[in-house]
Specification:
- By secondary structure, the protein is α/β, with parallel strands linked by helices.
- A hairpin with a 2-residue loop joins strand 12 and strand 13.
- It folds into 2 domains: 328 residues, L-arginine/glycine Amidinotransferase, Chain A (5-stranded Propeller), CATH 3.75.10; 73 residues, no CATH class.
- The chain has 15 helices and 20 strands.
- The strands form 6 sheets. The chain has a 5-stranded mixed beta sheet with strand order 9-10-11-14-15.
Length: 415
C-alpha cells in the first residue's frame, strides 16, 4: 500500500530541488505561472531547509534529479529509456539542422547523465546558420519546466500505485514525462496514465482513510476524474467542483489543497466559505463500480464524516496556510503564514493586473485584522486545542511560484 490517507505516517517523499529551469521562469514570471518575481537564491535555501526538516522527521527524501541520474549510471536499460525521451525533447533547425541532429545522435554515448537530464527539463531548440566565416548556433530553450519543483501535481499516489496525470497548462504538460521516469527508476508501479481529453493533477486529490475527495475545476476536469475514480479503491468518493474565488483571483483556488487539507484523523483545516461553496457529488462503491448516493457541499460532507474543521480566514488561505504537509496524525509542516503575507504584499505591489491589485487590497486588510486580534495561523488557540503539533518553516520566496509545502512534496509512501 502506497498512500491510504493524509494522516498515515509519511515514510517516503519525492522533491525536486530547483535548478536552472527556475532562472528561466523568473525572466517573465507571468508566462511561467509564477505569482511574481522572487529571489532564486533564497528559494533554493528554503527548499533545502524543507528537505532537511523532512529528513529530521525520519522521512526518506528522494530528489528527482538524483534518482534519475543515479539510475542512468547503474542501468544501461534505463539510460536507453531516457535517451529515447531526450531524442524527442531536443530539436535542430536551420542550414545544417539535419546534419547537426545526426551528429548529436552519433555522439550520444559521450553525454553524461546530467547533460541528458538538462535536455529533459530545458527542451533546447538549436538554430544553425551558415556564415562567411563558418557556422553559428543559437540555442533557444522551449518553455523550460520551471514549475517542476511542485512535485505533487504531476500524479496521484493511491493504494495500488501511481496514476500519471495530465496537466492542463501547456507550460507544465511535459512534466509528467520526467516524473514518470523518476517512478520507473524507483520501480514503483504505474497503474494508469491519463489520456485526452481529460486533465487531472495531484493537488486535487485528498485520500482520507475509508473515503477520498477528488476535485475538478481550474486544473483538473470531470473527464479526468471519471477516468480514475474506479482505481482509487475507496468505499466512497466525493467528487468536488471547485468554486470561484470571491476575490476574483482563481489562481487562489487552482487546486483543492489550496483551501482544504487534512491535519489528522478527524481533523481538517480549511476556509469554510470556500468549502461551503464547493459542491460535491458522493459516490459509493457498488458491485459494478461506483453509484451516486447523494449531493452536498464539502463543508457539510466533511462534518457528516465526523471531522472537525479549523477555520482559516480568506487572507490566511491566500497565503497558503492550507497548503501544509501532514507528517503523521496531527503533526504537520506549516509555512510561515505571516512571512508569506509580507512577501505576497511585496510581490503584488509591482503588479499592474487589476485582479492582483484586488487580492493585494484584501490581503492587506486581512493582515491588519489578524494583527489587531493577535493571532495568525498556526499560532492560534484553536490549533492548540485540537492538539496539532506543527513545525513552521519559511517558504515565503518559494511560494512565489504559486504553491506551498503540500504542492512541493509528493508523498510516495505512508505507513
Amino acid at each position: 500500500m502506497l498512500v491510504r490517507s493524509e494522516w498515515d505516517g509519511l515514510s517516503e517523499a519525492m522533491v525536486h530541488r530547483p535548478g536552472v529551469e527556475m532562472f528561466y521562469g523568473l525572466l517573465y514570471p507571468k508566462a511561467f505561472l509564477y505569482e511574481g518575481a522572487f529571489s532564486m537564491d533564497e528559494a533554493l535555501y528554503e527548499h533545502q531547509n524543507m528537505e532537511h526538516v523532512l529528513v529530521n522527521e525520519g522521512v526518506t527524501v528522494h530528489r528527482l534529479k538524483n534518482v534519475i541520474i543515479q539510475k542512468m549510471r547503474h542501468s544501461g536499460e534505463f539510460r536507453e529509456l531516457v535517451v529515447t525521451t531526450v531524442k524527442s525533447m531536443i530539436k535542430y533547425m536551420g542550414d545544417l539542422g539535419e546534419e547537426a541532429y545526426t551528429d548529436f545522435l552519433r555522439n550520444m554515448a559521450a553525454y553524461d547523465p546530467e547533460t541528458l537530464f538538462n535536455i529533459l527539463i530545458l527542451r533546447p531548440l538549436v538554430l544553425i546558420r551558415r556564415t562567411k566565416t563558418g557556422v553559428v548556433a543559437r540555442v533557444v530553450n522551449r518553455t523550460p519546466l520551471a514549475n517542476l519543483y511542485y512535485t505533487r501535481d504531476q500524479q496521484l499516489v493511491v493504494k495500488a500505485g501511481i496514476v500519471i496525470g495530465r496537466m492542463r497548462m501547456p507550460q507544465r504538460r511535459l512534466e509528467t514525462i520526467v516524473t514518470e521516469l523518476f517512478f520507473r527508476a524507483l520501480n514503483e508501479p504505474v497503474i494508469y496514465r491519463l489520456v485526452k481529453p481529460g486533465f487531472l493533477e495531484g493537488g486535487d486529490f485528498m485520500p482520507m482513510g475509508d473515503f477520498a475527495v477528488i476535485g475538478h475545476g481550474w486544473r483538473s476536469s470531470i473527464n479526468g476524474v471519471n477516468q480514475v475514480i474506479g482505481l482509487l479503491d475507496y468505499d466512497e468518493v466525493a467528487v468536488a467542483k471547485l468554486p470561484k474565488h470571491p476575490w476574483g483571483d482563481n489562481m487562489l483556488v487552482m487546486h483543492l489543497d489550496t483551501y482544504f487539507n487534512v491535519a489528522g484523523d478527524g481533523l481538517v483545516i480549511g476556509n469554510e466559505e470556500l468549502m461551503q461553496s464547493t459542491h460535491v457529488v458522493i459516490y459509493a462503491k457498488a458491485q459494478d463500480g461506483f453509484e451516486k448516493v447523494g449531493e452536498s457541499n464539502l463543508l457539510d460532507y466533511i462534518r457528516q464524516k465526523g471531522f472537525n474543521v479549523i477555520k482559516l480566514s480568506m487572507a490566511e488561505q491566500a497565503a497558503f496556510a492550507a497548503n501544509f504537509l501532514t507528517l503523521r496524525d496531527r503533526r504537520i509542516i506549516v509555512p510561515n503564514v505571516e512571512a508569506n503575507i509580507k512577501r505576497i504584499i511585496r510581490r503584488l505591489q509591482n503588479s499592474e493586473d487589476s485582479v492582483r491589485q484586488t487580492t493585494l487590497n484584501y490581503i492587506r486588510a486581512g493582515y491588519d485584522k489578524m494583527r489587531s486580534e493577535g493571532h495568525i495561523f498556526p499560532y492560534r488557540p484553536d490549533v492548540l486545542n485540537e492538539r496539532v503539533d506543527f513545525i513552521t518553516i519559511d517558504v515565503s520566496e518559494l511560494v512565489g511560484g504559486y504553491g506551498g509545502v503540500h504542492c512541493a512534496i509528493a508523498a510516495i509512501r505512508r505507513v
